[in-house]
Write a structure and sequence with these properties.
heterodimer, A: 329 residues, mainly alpha, two-stranded antiparallel ribbon, 3% strand, B: 455 residues, two-stranded antiparallel sheet, binds CIS-heme D hydroxychlorin gamma-spirolactone, binds protoporphyrin IX containing FE
Amino acid sequence: MDIFWYALIGLLFTGYLALESIDFGVGLLFLLAREERDRERLRRGVVPLFLANEVWLVATVGLLFGALPLLEGELLHALRTPVVLLLSAWYLRDAALWFRTAHPGAGWRRTWDVVLPAASLVLAAGWGAVLAALIRGLSTDGHGHAVAAAGDVAHPLALLGAALVVAACLRQGTLFTARRLPHDSPLLGRLNRFSRPLTRCLLGLVLLAAVRAAGVTDAPVTVLLVGVLAAAGVYASERSAAAGRPGTALLLGAAPLLALPVTVGLANGTTVLATRSGEGALVLSDAVADPASLTLLSMTVLPALIAVAFGQVWMWRVFVRPQVRQRTP
Amino acid sequence: MNAVDLARLQFATTATLHFLFVALTLGLVTVVVLMQTRAVRTRDPETKATRMRRVRFWGGLYVINYALGIVSGLAQEFQFGLNWSGLSHVMGNIVGAPLAIETIVAFFLESTFLGMWAFGFHRIPARAHLVLIWLVTLTAYASTFLIMVVNGFMQKPVGYETTGGVARVVDWGAVFANEATWYAVVHIAGAVALLAGMFLAAVSAYHLRRDQEVAFFQPTLAQGSVVAGIGAFVTVTAGGAHLVALKDYQPEKYAVLMGESGARLDAARAAAAARYGPGEWLPPAWVGIASLAMLAIGVFLLLLAWIPATAAAGGKGVPLSRKRFRLRLAMVLLPFGFAALVLGWLSREVGRQPWMVTGELTVEKAVSDVSTGGMLLSFIAFTAVLLTLAVVDWTLISRFARLGPDSGFIGDPGMFPGPEQQPDPDRARAADPTDDRTDDRTDDPTDDADAPFSY
Ligand code: HDD
Ligand code: HEM
Ligand code: HEM
C-alpha cells in the first residue's frame, strides 16, 4: 500500500511536468516572437490552462505532506536553495502571464516580455537539474542529512538534465503553438525552421543523458531502457507531427519529461530520498504516514482526483480542441 | 536575528500578504456567485445583460485579486517543508492529511474550474458556467475550513496521542470538530463578508461621487454596505464568543490579549508554569495592543459600515453624488477592514507563542535545521518578489476598479485581462498617452473570437 501513495505522488508530479512543459516552452518562445501580435497569441494560448497545469505541483506537495510527511520535510530541506529559486521564478512567471496586457504601457509589456522567458528558463532548467541530481543521489551534510550541494546541481548529469528539459519544453511549446498560428505569422516561419534541429538536439540529449545516468546508478539496464523509450517517443512524436496529428505529437513529445521522474523511481526503488553515501537516505517504510491518516486520505483524495481528471479533460476540450467555427447570429 | 526569528518573520510576512488577498477573494467570489445566479435566473434580456455586466466587472476584480492569492499561497505551502520540518516530523500524521485534502479536494478542483469560468463566458453554456463558479466558491470555502482545521489544531490540539515522539490521530471527528477551528471559521466568514461588502461599497462610491454609471453602481453601494453591516455583526458576535472560549483553552493567550497586568498576569504565568514546567509561557505583551485595536475597529465598523446604504436608499430627489459624506465614508472605511484582519491574525498567531502546537511543540523545536544565511536568503527572495507582486496586483485592481465596467477584462471574446476588449478603444487610448499598442483583434483567424454561447 505504501508504494501506491509514493507512485501516486510520482504520477501527480509527472502530470505537472508534462503539462507545464507546454507553458514553459511557450514562455521560452517569447524570445522568438518579435511581433506584438504573435506574443499575444502565445500568451492567450496558455493563459486559460496554466493555472490548471501548475496546480498539479501544488497537489504533489500537498499529498507528499499528507502521505509521506517525513519525505516532504527532508526533501525540501535537501533541495532548499533550488526550491527557493524555482518558487521565485514560478511567482514571476505567473505574474507575467496574468499581468502582461493588464496595463497598456509599452514599458510594462517589455518588462514582462523579459520576465516570462527568463522565469520559464529557470523553471525548466531547474527541474531538469534537480531531477537529474535525484537520479544520481544527493550528498550528505555535516549533520547526516541529505543535501543537494553545489556540486550536485552543477554535475554534468544535472546539466544534461537541465538542457534536456529545456529542449523538451521548447519542443512541446512549439508543437502546441504552431497549430494555433495563422499561416502568415512571422513566428510560424521561425518555428518551422527551428523545429527540426530542435528535435535532433533533443534526441541527442535524451540518449546522452541515459548513458550518463546509467553510469551512476545501480540499475543501468533499466535506466538505458527508459532512455531508449523516451527517444522513441520523441521520434514517434516527430512522425505524428509530420503526419498532421498535432495532438498525438504533443502527447508523445512528453516522453522525455516522463522519463526523468520515472527514472528517479526506478533507479532508487523504495529509497525515496537517495544519497550517494547511503547516510541520510530515507526509505519508504520510514517516511509513510500513519494508517489512520492514510485511510482518511484514500476516502477523500481518490474521489477528488477522479473529479479533477474529468474536469481537466473537459477543460482541454473547451479550450484546446480546434474550435468548430459557428457564429451565433 | 537568528534562524528561528527569520523563519517566523518570513511566515508572518507571506501569511499576512496571503490573507490580505484571499480574504477579499473569498468575499468577492461569494458576491459574484450570488450576482451570477441572479443574472442567470433573470428572464428579461435587458435586465439580464445588466446583471451579467455586473458579474463581469466584479468578477474581473476578483480574478485579478486571485492571482496574488495563488502565488502567496504557494509560498505558504512550501514553507512548511522548507522552514518548519519539525511540524512534519512530530505532527505530520495530523496536519499533513488536512493539508493534503485541501490541496487536492479544494485547490486542484478550484484552479481547474476558475480558469474555465474566467475564460469560458462565451464558450460554456450559461448553466454549466454558473455551476463552475458555484464549484469555485464551494471549494474556496472548503479550503478555508481545512486550513483552519490545521491552524485550530495548533491552537488547541485534540484527538491524538503521542508515542515515541510522533503524534497520531485517534479521533478524526474531534480534530474536525475542534472549537478552536470553528470559532475562527465563523469569525473569518464574518470578516470576509465585511471586507467584500466594504470593497463593493467603496468602489461604487468612487464612481457615484463622479456621477459615472449611476444605475450600475447604485445597487452595489446599497448591497455592499448592507453586507458589510451584516458581516460586521457576525464578526463581532463570533469574536466575542471566541474570546470567552479562549479563556478556557488558551488562558495564557487570553490574559495577554485582554491586556491583563500585575497580579492577574502573574497568576496566568504561574498557572502555565504549573502546567508546562518552569519557563516563560506567555506571549509578548504587545499582542494585547494588536488585539485591542482589532476590537476597537470591529466596534467602529459595526457602527459605521452600513451607513452608506442609506445614501443609496432614500431621498430620490437629490442626486446621489451630492451625498458626499456618506460616499466618502464608504471609501474611508475600507482600509480599516484590512487593518483589523492583520491585527486579528497577529493576535491569534503571536498569541500562540512560544508554542507551535500549544503544549506539545515549541516553535524553537519545530524550525528546520537551516543556517541563518540560508533562512535570510529565502526570506529576502520571497519577501522581495511577493511584495513587488502585491503592489503590482493592488495597482491593477485599483486601476480596473477606477476604469469602471467598460474596461471589461473577462468574458469578452478575447482574453482576460487584455485592454483589447475595451469596446471603445479610442476613449481608453485618449485617456492613456503612453499607449502604443496596435489594434490586432480583428484579423487573427486563430483568435478564439467565436462565441458559440452568449448571455
Ligand atoms: C481564510 C482563508 C485561507 C487561509 C487561512 C489560508 N488560505 Fe491559502 N488560499 C485561500 C484561503 C486561505 C483561498 C481563498 O482559497 C485561495 C486563494 C486563491 C486560491 O486558489 O485559493 C488560497 C490559495 C492558496 C494556495 C494556491 C492554490 C492554487 O494554486 O490554486 C496555496 C498553496 C495555499 N493557499 C496554501 C495555504 C497555506 C499553506 C495556508 C496556511 C498557512 C493558507 N493557504 C492559509
Ligand atoms: C492566512 C492567514 C494567517 C496569517 C495572517 C498568519 C499570521 C501569522 C503570523 C503573524 C505569524 C508569526 C507569529 C510569530 O512568530 O511571532 C505566524 C506564524 C505561523 N503560522 Fe500563521 N497565520 C495565518 C494562518 C496560518 C495557518 C492557517 C497556519 C497553519 C495551517 C499557520 C501556521 C503558522 C506557522 C507554522 C507559523 C510559524 C511558527 C510561529 O511563529 O508560530 N498560519 N502566522
Ligand atoms: C469587536 C470585534 C472583534 C472581536 C471581539 C474579535 C475577537 C477575536 C479573537 C478573540 C481572536 C483570536 C482568537 C484566537 O487567538 O484563537 C480574533 C482573531 C481574528 N480576528 Fe477578530 N475580533 C473582532 C473584530 C475583527 C474584525 C473587524 C476583523 C476583520 C475585518 C477581525 C479579523 C480577525 C482575524 C482574521 C483573526 C484571526 C483568525 C481567527 O482567529 O479567527 N476581527 N478575533
